């Protein structure tokens, strides 16, 4: 495929999920001529999808609390079982003085939809408590302890949810965000590409790598924080520590090499905001760091996940279906291109394209919450 599209000499990195078949594919690619033309002999060629790794971590954690989540899910389904229940639930929401939101449940294969379901359920809790007094048949209201546990779970999931959104972005580089957001996952595998991306971020460099390493492996130091500390406050403490670290760096020695000069420059604490454009920063530094700027352009172009590319090339459903099972290659290509062009035009006109241009055979019912594919 690479040779057919004439990109075998242009390939730099390949982002894939954790399937063993993908690992085998990469090994085969590196055995061929491709491995001889890659940076660092292919050591930075294979990048594992950050969102897929997050998914594996979260799914493993959710398996411990599946029973409690199931009760929330059944409660959401209960209200949608009949129109009479929905009307009574609307009344309960009104009496609880909250704006009504339609109950919805998650999709089993998408953990982020579980997070969104819990967020919705916690918002609707006053209405659910009120509904219990209106319908004696309703036995699915979680206990106060269960609600507290769900709130704590949502607090944990929020960290992963926000990280997934950051890794899935398509408007800015994402690889340099990978290490700080994901510092304790796969550390021992020695991911060279992530380390380089972090070093090439003028806000991070090696100081951040060392900072997080000490947090993850404190040696003989005992953990001073209690387990009950919320994840949001923990992250705030880490960020605060990083900000105080920024002021401690000294200026660079002008006689050092380009790499040494860059690494010994003070961290750019003026760029600690979400709008920081790291590629624009390196473009401005091209005259100072002629080699590093070119390296940064290549390294930082590698996405942290496959979400953006999968979304770009996804047709949101089956292209070949029972109704379209005799289409030839040219017709399928024409349909996919036409769909993409129509969607772009509709978006430019501010229209809601939704599923109106090409309805999906596998459209998700509106009574479920759909997260991203990751």
TrEMBL record:
<dbReference type="InterPro" id="IPR008906">
    <property type="entry name" value="HATC_C_dom"/>
</dbReference>
<feature type="domain" description="hAT-like transposase RNase-H fold">
    <location>
        <begin position="184"/>
        <end position="246"/>
    </location>
</feature>
<feature type="domain" description="HAT C-terminal dimerisation">
    <location>
        <begin position="258"/>
        <end position="342"/>
    </location>
</feature>
<dbReference type="GO" id="GO:0005634">
    <property type="term" value="C:nucleus"/>
</dbReference>
<dbReference type="GO" id="GO:0008270">
    <property type="term" value="F:zinc ion binding"/>
</dbReference>
<dbReference type="InterPro" id="IPR052035">
    <property type="entry name" value="ZnF_BED_domain_contain"/>
</dbReference>
<dbReference type="GO" id="GO:0003677">
    <property type="term" value="F:DNA binding"/>
</dbReference>
<keyword id="KW-0479">Metal-binding</keyword>
<keyword id="KW-0862">Zinc</keyword>
<dbReference type="InterPro" id="IPR025525">
    <property type="entry name" value="hAT-like_transposase_RNase-H"/>
</dbReference>
<dbReference type="InterPro" id="IPR012337">
    <property type="entry name" value="RNaseH-like_sf"/>
</dbReference>
<keyword id="KW-0863">Zinc-finger</keyword>
<dbReference type="GO" id="GO:0046983">
    <property type="term" value="F:protein dimerization activity"/>
</dbReference>
<keyword id="KW-0539">Nucleus</keyword>
<protein>
    <recommendedName>
        <fullName>HAT C-terminal dimerisation domain-containing protein</fullName>
    </recommendedName>
</protein>
<dbReference type="Pfam" id="PF14372">
    <property type="entry name" value="hAT-like_RNase-H"/>
</dbReference>
<dbReference type="Pfam" id="PF05699">
    <property type="entry name" value="Dimer_Tnp_hAT"/>
</dbReference>
<keyword id="KW-0238">DNA-binding</keyword>
């Amino acid at each position: 495929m690479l040779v057919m599209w004439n990109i075998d000499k242009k390939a730099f990195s390949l982002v894939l999920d954790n399937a063993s078949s993908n690992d085998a594919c990469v090994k085969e690619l590196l055995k061929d001529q491709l491995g001889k033309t890659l940076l660092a002999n292919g050591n930075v060629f294979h990048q594992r999808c950050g969102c897929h790794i997050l998914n594996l971590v979260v799914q493993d954690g959710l398996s411990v609390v599946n029973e409690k989540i199931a009760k929330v899910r059944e409660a959401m389904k209960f209200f949608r079982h009949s129109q009479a229940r929905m009307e009574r639930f609307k009344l309960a929401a009104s009496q609880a003085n909250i704006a009504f939101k339609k109950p919805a449940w998650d999709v089993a294969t998408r953990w982020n939809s579980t997070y969104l379901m819990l967020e919705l359920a916690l918002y609707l809790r006053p209405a659910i408590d009120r509904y219990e007094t209106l319908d004696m048949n309703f036995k699915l209201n979680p206990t106060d302890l269960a609600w507290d546990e769900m709130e704590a779970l949502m607090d944990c999931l929020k960290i992963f949810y926000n990280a997934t959104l950051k890794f899935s972005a398509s408007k800015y580089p994402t690889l340099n965000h990978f290490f700080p957001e994901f510092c304790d996952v796969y550390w021992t595998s020695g991911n060279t590409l992530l380390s380089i991306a972090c070093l090439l971020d003028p806000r991070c460099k090696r100081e951040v790598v060392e900072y997080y390493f000490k947090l993850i492996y404190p040696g003989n130091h005992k953990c001073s924080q209690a387990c009950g500390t919320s994840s949001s406050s923990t992250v705030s403490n880490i960020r605060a520590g990083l900000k105080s670290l920024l002021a401690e760096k000294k200026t660079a020695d002008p006689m050092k090499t380009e790499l040494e000069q860059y690494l010994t420059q003070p961290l750019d604490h003026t760029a600690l905001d979400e709008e920081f454009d790291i590629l624009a920063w390196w473009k401005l530094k091209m005259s100072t760091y002629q080699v590093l700027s070119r390296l940064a352009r290549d390294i930082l172009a590698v996405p942290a996940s496959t979400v953006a590319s999968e979304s770009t090339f996804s047709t949101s459903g089956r292209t070949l279906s029972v109704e379209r099972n005799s289409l030839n290659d040219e017709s399928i290509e024409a349909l996919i291109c036409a769909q993409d062009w129509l969607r772009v035009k509709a978006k430019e006109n501010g229209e809601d394209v939704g599923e109106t241009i090409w309805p999906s055979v596998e459209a998700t019912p509106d009574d479920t919450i759909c997260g991203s594919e990751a």
